[in-house]
Amino acid sequence: MLAAAFALGDGGKIQFQRKAGAFNITLFSSPSPLRVGRTDFSVMVQNTASSNPILDADVRFHFVQRGVNSIAEVSAPARHEKATNKLLYAAQVDLNSTGNWRAEVSVQTARDSALVTGDLDVLPPEPPLLAHWPYFVALPVVAFLFVLNQRLKRRRRGVNRP
Amino acid sequence: MGANVESAASAAFESWAVDGRLVTLLLLSAIVYIRGWLRGRRLLRDQHDPLRLVAFLASLLVLFLANDSPLDAFDSLFLAAHMTQHLLLMMIAPPLLLLSNPLLPVLRGLPKAFVKEGLGPFLSWRPLKQFFAWLTSPLPAWIIFAASMVLWHVPKLYELALSSPAWHSVQHACFFWSGVLFWWPVIQPGPGKPRWPKWVAIPYLLFADILNTLLSVVFVFSGHLLYPSYGVVRAGTLGALEDQSVAGLIMWVPGSIVYLVPAFVLVMGLFTTSRMQAASAPQRVRLPALRKNPAWWKHAPLIRRVAQMAMLLVAIAVIADGFRGTQVAALNLAGVLPWIHWRALSMLALLLVGNLFCSACPFMLVRDGARGLSAPLRSRFSKGWQAKPPAPPSSQMSRLGWLRWPRALRNKWLGVSLIALYLWAYEAFSLWDSPWLTAWLITAYFAAAVLVDSLFRGASFCKYVCPVGQYHFVVSLVSPREIAVRDKATCQRCQTYDCIRGNQESRGCELYLFQPKKASNLDCTFCLDCVKACPHDNVGLLSVIPGKTLLSDAYRSSIGRLSKRADLVALVLLLVFGAFVNAAGMVAPVMTFEHRWHARLGVHAMPFIVGAFVLAGAVLLPLATFWLCSAANGSASEARRLAFSLVPLGVAMWAAHLLFHAASVWTTASVACLQILFLEAGLLFTLYLAWRIAQSHLKLFAPWAGVACLLFASGVWVIFQPMQMRGMMH
Predict the structure, then answer these.
(1) Closest alpha carbon within chain B to A55
(2) Angle B553-B554-B555 (CA atoms, 0-180°, nearest 5)?
(3) For A53, which of B8, B162, B180 is closest by C-beta distance?
(4) Are residues B176 and A138, on separate chains, in Cβ contact within 8 Å?
(5) Which residue in A23, A38, A135, A136 has the most chain B C-beta atoms within 10 A of its own C-beta, making it the best mutation to test that interface?
(6) Are B625 and B569 in contact (CB under 8 A)?
(7) Predicted structure pTM score
(8) B709 to each of B294, B629, B672, B702, B705, how far by Cα in Å?
(9) What pLDDT digit, counting tens, does each position of B651-697 carry?
(10) ipTM of the complex, rounded to two decimals
């Protein structure tokens, strides 16, 4: 009966949408906002003319962060199997530092290819206690219900006593 | 083009997002309902017709489809998909749920004690009953439903739900629960008589349909996009405005049907009321029959033997691979089976059933075999050795083993020492990483079991020596099943006491547990000897309330009173604190600390550093804790009893830790969530036990509650640290 409470939103936040050649490319990410750690990136590739999703493309993600003395890079192929919505291509990527990252999405089909880029702002990881706060809410709730339960029982015993 | 559309459609239909939490919840709901439905069917033959069961299962199926089917995957791309999802949540799942008349079956399906003690006070609390009666009366229910429907379709709120998974969940929960409230006055599920005349539901439904139509009109004819998010990404040829119109039509036509059909049925029903009254004949009540052991139960000893043989084969394979196979733990049976899978599976069995792994213990099979082979030699030798005449043939137990276990060792201190030794050796020599050492350990275990039980009577090895057994005994204190007598009166009439003495058919309990006086799973290996020996078929594997036996300090067969057993308290505290120490030993901050000292003290210092850590965390800390709590309680015997309340928390920490290793294929986030849930359940259970054992005395309860909270906090800290994934390729 509580099932509805577990229903989650789908897709994630749109990071950017670009038109490149024959493609209309939209990058989604989850969670939102982006934080250091594992992130789910998914991309929808559409035909610019018809808006139909293109499902047979070879899609790759490349994320770069340029620091003063260092460069961090992460690459990953995006696949339908990794996506909940099978019209999207998805990959899980570890972004391991805060700040500005450049996202590159390359798309290649038998006839065309395209590369789009965009900027992402990655925040520090959320403190674990904060990230899992819903799980800790149960404790005071159950404790309150128990106290109430005990009070009701005591009152009932008092009422039943001659 | 056509092929592209076809492949897009097929991709869309494959977009199932099965959420394990939701599926678990739905399955649990189904199990509880079916259990209660079957119980109700036994008691009241006519009341629970199969259609109600079908309605309940259908409502669960609709909830699954709404949340996990492609509808969910596409709800952020197509408003029409989202609208269909909402229609299922508000207008299909709730009426199906209420048609199943869920209250009584669910209450019957839940554990009786939980319903009586946990829910009972709330169910009979007058203000709550009055509030619920008010909430489910037509006017408030209608207003809440209408408010939920209208407010969540306001563009700002709808966009909020689209942009945040958390708000999206809140929106769906509002739709479902307001739907339940809305359909309550229409269906008026039991128990109790209907509170309103049926005709009330007719204008009620018609007004809802008017509201639904007005909202639909806005979607269909507004001419501008209500929710801009649906305009950003469009897949296929369906434009955002067309999508909005389709969503409006879905709301309008199927929505109206859902309101108008029941209204029509009710109108028709008003003309046939008299017939319906005649149909509701008085119910025949059937008393429940006294339960007996199920038919398969008589084969339980045989099943046990087969399980033992299977485990023996596994143990042989583990030993062989450990000695001869690759010494990479993750690729060796001796690295993976005992330390990852067996530990996790035995914990699962303990939490779901009971001490099944002691029941299937391969060491005991080998021991029994060795005893059988050495019986002629032993009897010849003992003729000249024993001054007393041999024991009567009915007591088979006395013929096994030569000597009685030394009186000084008839306690758990040896087991406690061996567990402490194990906790140290596991870390100091990285047993999990050495198949060769693991193989030696298992071989030594076989040798020790055979040697001890060949020399000494009964199951001395299990009762006093085996560290794994001691761990299982303690964990099984919170198991939901127990080997126990079905009918105490039968035992009172019994003159032979075969369950402990044995007979020609079977030996009696080798751990000296006399069934009528046995309480809890402590020292019970689930060997089923008592089951086989009982001539009255009066011993079974029964459901018990986990931990309930800890609430009393009654005398227990072969154990005595818990408040007098310092060795048992030491065992419990070692296993509880050991759970935290064992898990902490593999998290980054502790390992860094150990390695820093290792670098400082030299190459061979690691075993001593680990030894100091284990000694401090699993021995000295519990000792100090017990001493402080005992002083605060003002009574050592009360403190001894209260120490047992920590068992659930310790079990939870072991379970959370083993889950981490066993569920290496899951994502880290979901494992952490489950681990937190385990720990929370353990903490709440511990607090409850402490409160009940302390009999509401704050002076007794508070110190142990404080200890439990500190242990919980340290467990949460451990869970959130980077943990070494041992023994698995990743």
Answers:
(1) B8
(2) 120
(3) B8
(4) no
(5) A135
(6) no
(7) 0.76
(8) 42, 14, 19, 10, 6
(9) 999 999 988 887 765 555 578 888 888 998 999 999 999 999 998 88
(10) 0.84
